[in-house]
Every structure is written in C-alpha cells, then in structure tokens.
Amino acid sequence: MIDVQDLVVSYGTATALEHITLAVAEGEMVALLGPNGAGKSTLANTLAGLLKPASGTVRIGGRPALIPEGRQLFPDLSVADNLALGGWRSGRRDPSTVYDLLPRLAELAGRKAGVLSGGEQQMVAFGRAMMSEPDALVVDELSLGLAPTVTADLAAHLAGLNRSRGLTVLLIEQNARLAFDLCDRAYVLESGRLVTEGPCSELAGDPRVASAYLGGAIS
Ligand SMILES: Nc1ncnc2c1ncn2[C@@H]1O[C@H](COP(=O)(O)OP(=O)(O)OP(=O)(O)O)[C@@H](O)[C@H]1O
C-alpha cells in the first residue's frame, strides 16, 4: 500500500533522505523511528506529495491521508470547518461518523481550533484525516506534546481502525514504546539513512535501539 524505493530528498544542496527503501503492506501498521533531524517529517511530506524526490519513487495505493507534525489546523476556523476541509476530496460533508469515533469533537464543533488544548487539536487533526476516508494513513508524531492518557486514547482509536477497517498505518514516532506497542514492524532512521528494521519484538531487544529509544534495555 505504501512503497518507497531508493528515495533521495534534498533541501538545496543538503540531502535529508539518502536511498530510503521501505514498504507497508495493505492492513499493516508499521513504525518509523528516529531522533530529531533524522528525516522523518521529510519522508512524511514526500509521501504526502508536498516535497519532490531528487530521485527514487514513492507510491501510495488507495486514498492516502496525513496527520502532519504540529497538526497544521486552521486556527481561526471552527473545529467543524477544519473537519469539513478534510472531506473536500472524498466529497464527504457529514462528520457524524467522526463524532461517533471521537465524541469530544461534537462538543467542540463550534470552537475555534486555535484555542483548543494540544490534545484536543490532535483529535481534530485525527478527525480531519478520517473525513477523507483514507485507506492509508501516515501519522507524523502522534504523541508530540500530548499527555500519556491522550496519546493512549488516540493510539487505541488507530488500532481499532486498523482492526475494523484494515486501515494501513505508517506511524512516525520518537516514542518507541508507543510504536512497539502498536506496530508489528519498525524501521529506524538516523541522519537520513535507514539503520535497522525488523519485527518490533526483535528491535525492542536490540541493545542499540533500547539505549537510543527506550532509555536502556527493557525486560
Ligand atoms: N525546509 C527545510 N530546508 C532546509 N533543511 C531542512 C528543511 N526541513 C528540514 N530540513 C533539514 O532536513 C533534516 C531532516 O529534517 P526533518 O524535519 O525531516 O527531521 P525529523 O526527523 O522530522 O525531525 P524532528 O523529529 O525534529 O521533527 C534536518 O537536518 C533538517 O534540518
């Protein structure tokens, strides 16, 4: 569903992604881990078509959606209008199934997005992505700036959509515990290069991964 082959992306003369190859099959949830500056958002934005590869290819089957880093809502528009913008491509106007999924959004519908808390804004970004009825979702740092309970709540929604609708997910994260809890496989990106990949159960036991992302070995 998501296929990246030998991807190189540059900002001017600086190369941010160097020969990245990765794939996410239909219905899979796969994590991409990496520290600050690794190139995670560059990959997300290339998948979203916002950045052009210098070479290589990116392909997403079906209908893709992105939850961007920092949410990128329209702060002066209401929650309902932000959701409606998510539906422009699918032609969907009615947010009721999104409200069923995230009832708090129905309560917030008339509020301006810019005055909401970080967690509430992330719910709007999540709901906006769902308005496009995606087959494949790229999530750029679900947990960024959120309380653990809010992150756990949104993660449970993602897992539920993956189970019930077969939603394909590429979860881009710095929070390895969250990624390993949710996903079966992960890639690790550092300084624009993939340094390792494999089943989360194996990566969690890899001393290099544990020391970089989990604060030491985990039992
Ligand atoms: N618009 C830009 N112009 C020039 N360089 C950029 C631009 N955006 C990102 N970079 C550089 O590309 C590299 C990758 O940045 P990117 O934002 O993709 O990393 P990231 O893994 O998402 O980091 P973070 O976790 O801090 O958000 C960094 O060295 C960054 O400084």
From TrEMBL:
SMART domains: AAA (SM00382). This is ABC transporter ATP-binding protein. Pfam families: ABC_tran (PF00005). InterPro entries: AAA+_ATPase, ABC_transporter-like_ATP-bd, ABC_transporter-like_CS, BCAA_Transport_ATP-bd_LivF, P-loop_NTPase. Keywords: Amino-acid transport, ATP-binding, Nucleotide-binding, Transport. Residues 2-216 form the ABC transporter domain. GO terms for biological process: L-amino acid transport. GO terms for molecular function: ATP binding; ATP hydrolysis activity; branched-chain amino acid transmembrane transporter activity.
